Amino acid sequence: ILANGSQNNEIKILVKSDEGIALNGLSVTLIPDGGQSEIRSEQSQTDENGEIIFSLSNSRAETVTYEVQAHRTIIGSFTVEYLPDSGELSLGYNYPNPFQVHTTLPVTVPRAMDIQITIYDQLGRPVQTVVDSRFEPGYYEIPFRAHGLASGIYFYRLVTDDEILTKRMVLVR
């Protein structure tokens, strides 16, 4: 999540009993361990599936651990890393790299824009379009599945109206 104070990310929490039964109608709160977090509950209680949704944002680059509490009892915790916001479009290095079937393409979007990410083979031929849509400002980890592709070097290219960014990745079978 970008630490710009404006990127809100949805966090879903599933609450079940020790027997695995979804707990409906339970009030749940998140308690940050420090940090500059803004926490907004999207619903007042868990639903019939035991889920409750929160929206999180933060104005400072830091790591924050959140305690999940129900009736003032800690029922779990999770950690969120808030990343610095450079205000620039960026295409990170995929990870893992090399990869076998699945890899992740990190992208930071500074403002709302249309983005296309396409995978190319060594000869520059497009082999798959991963994304072709409008993105709101924020940090994204875009999954890529290399089904049907042979081992080798591939390139992933991010194209907007203003910029073209390209990185290399290695597929091993």
Which ranges are low-confidence, i.e. pLDDT below 50, for 5 or more consecutive residues? none
The tally of helices reads 0
Shape: elongated
Distance between the termini: 32 Å
Class from helix and strand fractions: mainly beta
How big is the Rg? Answer: 20 Å
Strand order of the largest sheet: 10-9-12-13
The share of residues in extended strands comes to over 45%
Helical content band: under 10%
> SSE string, helix = H, strand = E?
EEEEEEEEEEEEE
Biggest beta sheet summary:
4 strands, antiparallel
Query: Taking all residues together, what is the mean pLDDT?
Result: 92
Instruction: Count the E strands.
Output: 13
Helix-strand layout with pairing:
Elements: E1 9-14, E2 28-32, E3 37-41, E4 51-58, E5 62-70, E6 73-82, E7 90-91, E8 102-109, E9 113-120, E10 126-135, E11 138-145, E12 152-159, E13 164-171
Antiparallel strand pairs: 1-4, 2-5, 3-4, 5-6, 7-8, 8-11, 9-10, 9-12, 12-13
What does this structure look like?
The protein has 173 residues and is mainly beta. Helix content is 0%, strand content 55%. The protein has strands spanning 9-14, 28-32, 37-41, 51-58, 62-70, 73-82, 90-91, 102-109, 113-120, 126-135, 138-145, 152-159, 164-171. A 4-stranded antiparallel beta sheet has the order 10-9-12-13, with no helix packed on it. A hairpin with a 5-residue loop joins strand 9 (113-120) and strand 10. The chain is elongated and about 60 Å long. The mean pLDDT is 92.
